[in-house]
Write a structure and sequence with these properties.
Blueprint: H1 4-9, E1 12-17, H2 23-38, E2 45-47, E3 56-63, H3 70-74, E4 78-86, E5 88-89, E6 101-102, H4 110-118, E7 122-126, E8 135-136, E9 139-140, H5 141-146, E10 156-169, E11 172-179, H6 185-195, E12 200-210, E13 213-214, E14 219-220, H7 221-226
Parallel strand pairs: 1-14, 3-12
Antiparallel strand pairs: 1-3, 2-3, 4-11, 4-12, 5-6, 7-10, 8-9, 10-11, 12-13
Length: 228
């Protein structure tokens, strides 16, 4: 059983983030429960890599002195599984916003999908979505986007090690992706749809691995709190 001092000295917690929760909400929930369980006035708690509210899966939470390791964990290779819905786009590139444009999918074959996925493997340039936590002039992009404002976002270089199509049931396409830090799977879904001469948005996302850490070893928030 861990003590308050153990959490202050530093712990790595693997949490399976629930759907609709922000990563910040998970951190706050764990911090509050750790503080109150052990009567701590203050303790550092942070996460190594944001997951969008509509994504689930692995969050690495660092406490106490181990918050110094956050940058190290954020830099590690990540694996995701999920679903892209073809034939429609949304402003957020996922289901946070409503469909704004529709496109034909009749020309899309399984072979075309597999061939197009190969175009995204390797070192590529990607423009992050407007609905993102990226800051410009001290303002988060998603705050501007929700006000209906836009800004030009600089593209960034990322690496896609694996883009595997695991199932096709048009307009739904299931995938597994292994990628570098800084990759936006929502942008990949949008770009993938565009490359198919159609449209696309991310309809499901789950982070399964960060480096050697696996979501199979993670606890749900309620189970972590119950085991404190």
């Amino acid at each position: 059983m861990l003590s308050g001092e153990d959490f202050k000295n530093g712990q790595i917690l693997l949490i399976d983030k629930p759907l609709t929760w922000t990563s910040f909400q998970v951190v706050n929930k764990l911090r509050w429960n750790i503080r109150h369980k052990f009567g701590l006035g203050k303790i550092k708690v942070g996460h190594a890599g944001t997951l969008d509210p509509l994504a689930t899966g692995l969050l690495i939470i660092c406490t106490g002195n181990f918050t110094k390791k956050i940058d190290e964990y954020q830099a590690q290779v990540k694996e995701y599984t999920g679903e892209i819905t073809l034939g429609a786009t949304t402003p957020s590139f996922d289901l946070e916003t409503e469909v704004d444009e529709t496109f034909p999918v009749d020309h899309i074959t399984d072979d075309l999908i597999h061939k197009t996925a190969k175009q995204f493997v390797g070192d590529i340039s990607q423009i992050p979505p407007m609905f993102s936590a990226i800051k410009m002039a001290g303002v988060r992009m998603y705050d501007l986007a929700r006000q209906g404002k836009t800004r030009e976002i600089t593209s960034r270089n990322i690496t896609i090690q694996t883009f595997e199509i695991t199932s096709i049931n048009l307009p739904k396409v299931q995938f597994r992706i292994v990628c570098s830090k800084g990759t936006y799977i929502r942008s990949l879904a949008y770009d993938f749809g565009k490359a198919l001469n159609s449209g696309g948005h991310l309809s499901q996302l789950r982070r399964t691995k960060i480096g050697d850490f696996n979501v199979n070893d993670a606890l749900e928030v309620k189970d972590f709190i119950a085991n404190l």
